[in-house]
Amino acid sequence: MNVLVIGSGGREHALAWKLKQSPLADRVFVAPGNAGTAQDAENVPISEKDFAGLIRFAKANRVGLTVVGPEAPLAEGIVDAFRAEKLRIFGPTKAAAELEASKVFCKQLLRSADVPTADFQIFSDPASARRYLMEKEDMPLVVKADGLAAGKGVIVCDNREQALQAIRLIAEEKAFGSAGDRLVIEERLHGEEASVLAITDGKTIVTLQPAQDHKPAYDGDTGPNTGGMGAYSPAPVVSDEALHWIEANILVPTVHAMRKAGRPFTGVLYAGLMMTPLGPRVLEFNVRFGDPECQPLMMRLKSDLLEILNLAVDGQLDQLESLEWDPRPAVCVVMASEGYPGSYQKGFPIRGLDEAARLPDVKVFHAGTALKDGEIVTAGGRVLGVTALGENIARAKYQAYAAVKCIRWQGAWCRKDIADKAIRRLTQQNV
């Protein structure tokens, strides 16, 4: 079977790399891909926005399954477009993708399904949002743009003044464009964040091992939010007991509520959770594999990903045997361009990739890279996802950072504390 992966980031590189390992896979194409996918698969110079071009390519190259990486084409209805042409594609329809594309829709669905989440209010203009804040006691809050904002439309505020600034940025200065036409203001939850992803065909749910992303730019979870500066799996903050509870009280009711709402959900349901003292609470839902969570998950998954996705598309996930995982943890460290998540320069040559690749149990997934005159250069804010397995989380971290040290380009930087929370938690448990 020929497979087409849509997207150009680290998640898409990890998916293409994993799909290529399947005995069911013949050719694996990535559109448009990056310098890394060019090595592990075949790049196709078609934008993820060009649905007609992607459909023509899928037909001409007898693509048996298309896998959508990013959220934007899902929100724009790429699954509906492919299905209309009788092409098999993994992901939610446009109506179902609104679970991520609209924070307002997501919060309203959670409330109607009685899924635990933070208390919230919705506003369609900045004046009413400001009025609400002035009438409310001064307290920590979170201000969210309703629409898609590349992982940056959520502003965590310590007090009223910061929340007022967030309203100004999102709703008046339109820092995230039309995504800020509506606002969600919610109570700020406290605890440790975790990501629980599941693959579903709308009836059966197959939950993956828990992971933890690191959204803030700098060490100690400080600085502005980014698309994610690193991740690891499994996440010890989610016990086996907690994972079963999340399945029963969050994932199952959400899939049921989506079906009841006439928006049956197929694809990846990704619950971004806060593990509070009162139990798990949903911060948000995404409707695709997380980036960078996908990288450590694909490193650890021993089952055939293509078989899993085929069964999901055909509505036959109930036939899947239980997933097999490498018991070793995996850690992914994102190497970024100087200036990210603000403005940054592109085009710097990247050195040391071959040296890093020679380290055992290491895979360097490319995100913002391109080929220029036969040389791999930087082409984005998040450039690489350096991922490693280890006998324990500390060894996996050590190996990932050993690979990071091999790689260099002008202005390269990364967080130094990816997975430290897990190491601390496990140390405390063993004391």
Textual characterization of the structure:
- The model has no long low-confidence stretch (mean pLDDT 96).
- The chain is α+β, with helices and mostly antiparallel strands and 431 residues long.
- Helix 1 packs parallel to helix 11 and helix 6 crosses helix 7.
- A hairpin with a 3-residue loop joins strand 13 and strand 14.
- The protein starts with a strand and ends with a helix.
- The chain folds into 4 domains: 92 residues, Rossmann fold (3-Layer(aba) Sandwich), CATH 3.40.50.20; 57 residues, Dna Ligase, domain 1 (2-Layer Sandwich), CATH 3.30.1490; 128 residues, ATP-grasp fold, B domain (D-amino Acid Aminotransferase, Chain A, domain 1), CATH 3.30.470.20; 101 residues, Alpha-Beta Complex (Glycinamide Ribonucleotide Synthetase, Chain A, domain 4), CATH 3.90.600.10.
Layout of helices and strands:
Blueprint: E1 2-7, H1 10-20, E2 28-32, H2 37-40, E3 42-43, H3 51-60, E4 63-68, H4 71-76, H5 78-84, E5 89-90, H6 94-101, H7 103-113, E6 120-123, H8 126-135, E7 141-145, E8 154-157, H9 160-172, E9 183-187, E10 192-200, E11 205-207, E12 212-213, E13 216-218, E14 222-225, E15 230-233, H10 240-260, E16 267-276, E17 279-286, H11 294-300, H12 305-313, E18 330-336, H13 353-357, E19 362-366, E20 369-372, E21 375-378, E22 382-389, H14 393-406, H15 420-430
Parallel strand pairs: 1-2, 1-4, 2-3, 4-5
Antiparallel strand pairs: 6-9, 7-8, 7-9, 10-11, 10-16, 12-15, 13-14, 15-18, 16-17, 18-22, 19-22, 20-21
Protein name: Phosphoribosylamine--glycine ligase
Domain ATP-grasp: 107-314
EC number: 6.3.4.13
